[in-house]
Amino acid sequence: MRTATRNYAGTAMLVLVMLFCILPILSMLSAALQPQGTVPMGISWPSNPQWGNFADAWNVANISVLLRSSAVLVLGVVPVSVLISTMAAYALAQLHLPGGKIFYVLLLVGLTLPFEVTIIPLYYQIRDMGLLNTQPGLILPLIGLNMPFAIFWMRAHFSSVPAELSEAASMDGAGSWTSFRRIHLPLAVPAIASLALLMFLSTWNQFLLAIILIQDPDKRTMAGALQNFVGEHGSDLVLLNAGALLIMAPTVIVFLILQRHFIKALLAGSVKG
Amino acid sequence: MTAGTDLRVPAGNMAAQAAAPAAGRRGQDTPRTRRRRKARAWTGWLFALPALVMYGVFVLLPLCSSLQYSLYDWDGITAAKWVGLANYVQVLTDPRLVEPILHAFIFIIFFSIIPVCGGLVIASIIKDLKSKAFGTAARILLFIPQIIPAAAAAVAWVWMYSSDGVVNQLLRGAGLGGMARAWLGDFDWALPAVGIIGTWLGIGLCTILLIAGIGKIDSSLYEAARLDGAGWFQEFRAVTLPGLRSEIGVCITITTIAALASFDAVFMSTQGGPGHSTMVPGVAIYRLAFVENNIGLASAMAIVLVLLVLLVVGPLQRLFKEK
């Protein structure tokens, strides 16, 4: 194949995959803009797009409440997960923990563990803690489930920091904590930022744990609340699609704003995970 | 740290500094410094402790409980009855439970093999995204399926697949109106239809990862192949495939786990129906535990799922490990 033909063929295929990726979203948008009460047919730009449908869906799906509860969950999960996983990764990579290998292997197990295996005992455990149907009851397990990936992510960073740095610090009389806080933490900021971004995404999009541990859709993640919304409005295609688009919107908006960082983090995240 | 240990630090350092060029630090350690280093190594566990506790309580403990539950007949309320491995026998023999496992393996084709092959072909043809604007647009669009919740993606696809949806519209437009149907309600077609949702979820990430990987292959290898008169396929086999070994491994591992442990997209599109035609282990576990209250059987199914993932992913990891 000549280079020019080749590039055309490749670009054409890439454009096809791009269309494939965006088509479901466009079809939702087309349905969401039809007049309410009509039955939308396939994908077509409506002659008179009803942007007001989004306002109605906002109220019906209770988006304001969902945004707040998702934000509470993210704020409960992400900072704590980042802090304790960073500390553990620092210990594993830099402090030569006696028995650290065992911890490492245990984490390795967690890395491939499907969430499905933990949900049944978690349900009873959270119930016995009296936290069923509360947001802390979802926040705590999510922090635990984040640990393997988060620690591996930060450990990869700390392993690349030369050991001389810690040695130099300890010669100046710095203890482990001081050298962690003063030297290692500032250097880890880019790695931490990417990790926080990935955890924001996984927490916000968490579905399985949200529907099992929280019955009240208003306290769930936005993804989890979708289950209830579909149950109630599944037959009203216009409203359903408008509501589902609103539920997708926050992560997509954050993604578009932080696009560069997001893609870098997601690519690196898949390689490390 | 106490004042006493603080004071001792400089002395130890001086000894170490003096000894370092000659014999290395360890040989010159006094018992006191050795003891201190050891104590300090143990205090390192204080850093790991919070993470270890959270991981232990909310992952390892449930994992062990699942193992325990799987050996009992329990409805979640009345007293549990010890049944040994009976639940496992049922998981591996009851057609209603074996079927979901088979479906999970069929999903590997849709979630993993199609996205990875598609991504490979595209990556090997275009090698690098030259135009900057096009590259950015491609990346954004290809990443959309990674960004939105899979549950919401399922809602979009349910509408795509409905009688009046886009899939049938396209078929009718292509003169294949005879094929049009309610895809997710069709016993034969529902499984591949849900599988394609998985393809949609994975293909963007795989394509981008592989294009990024191909950019890292030494371009002189491609020039050498061209000078040798290698065609596209020979070049693909001799340069691209070996160069992308680790990226392919990553793509296959992630998407295979996603296929075996799929839940969100299936639960929100078909719930496993019609009948059991799209039932997967994740949804089966959910139904057994929270609808049918058969905790023991659900737990056995969950443990089998973990073993399947380990059995499939373990060899894959070894296969794609960089030499």
Which characteristics define this entry?
heterodimer, A: 273 residues, mainly alpha, MetI-like fold, B: 323 residues, 2 domains, two-stranded antiparallel sheet, 2 strands, flat, Carbohydrate ABC transporter permease (chain A), MetI-like_sf (chain A), MetI-like (chain A)
Task: Give the gist of this structure.
Chain A: One of its GO terms (cellular component) is plasma membrane. The complex is a heterodimer of chains A (273) and B (323). By secondary structure, chain A is mainly α.
Could you characterize what this model shows?
The complex is a heterodimer of chains A (273) and B (323). Chain A is built from 13 helices and no strands. Chain A has 273 residues and is mainly alpha-helical. Chain A has 2 domains: 48 residues, no CATH class; 216 residues, MetI-like fold. In chain A, α2 packs across α12, α6 packs antiparallel against α9 and α11 runs antiparallel to α12. By secondary structure, chain B is mainly alpha-helical. Chain B has 15 helices and 2 strands. In chain B, α10 runs antiparallel to α11, α12 runs antiparallel to α15 and α14 packs antiparallel against α15. The two termini of chain B are 45 Å apart. Classes of the chains: A mainly alpha (273), B mainly alpha (323). At the A-B interface, α1, α3, α4, α5 and α6 of A face α1, α3, α5, α6 and α7 of B. Chain A: It comes from Arthrobacter mobilis.
Spans of at least 5 consecutive residues with low confidence of chain B: 1-27
By oligomeric state, this entry counts as heterodimer
- Helix vs. strand class of chain B: mainly alpha
The coarse silhouette of chain B is flat
Distance linking N and C termini of chain B: 45 Å
The most extensive contact between chains is: A-B, 98 and 104 residues
The strand count of chain B comes to 2
Provide the succession of SSEs of chain A: HHHHHHHHHHHHH
Determine Rg of chain A (CA atoms, Å).
23 Å
Q: What is the succession of H and E elements of chain B?
A: HHHEEHHHHHHHHHHHH
- CATH level-3 fold name of the largest domain in chain A: MetI-like fold
Biggest β-sheet of chain A: count, sense, barrel?
none
Tally the helices of chain B: 15
Question: Which strand-content bin applies to the residues of chain A?
Answer: under 5%
CATH topology label of the largest domain in chain B = MetI-like fold
Radius of gyration of chain B: 28 Å
Family (chain A): Belongs to the binding-protein-dependent transport system permease family.
Protein name (chain A): Carbohydrate ABC transporter permease
Transmembrane segments (chain A): 12-33, 71-92, 104-126, 138-156, 187-214, 238-258
Membrane topology (chain A): Multi-pass membrane protein
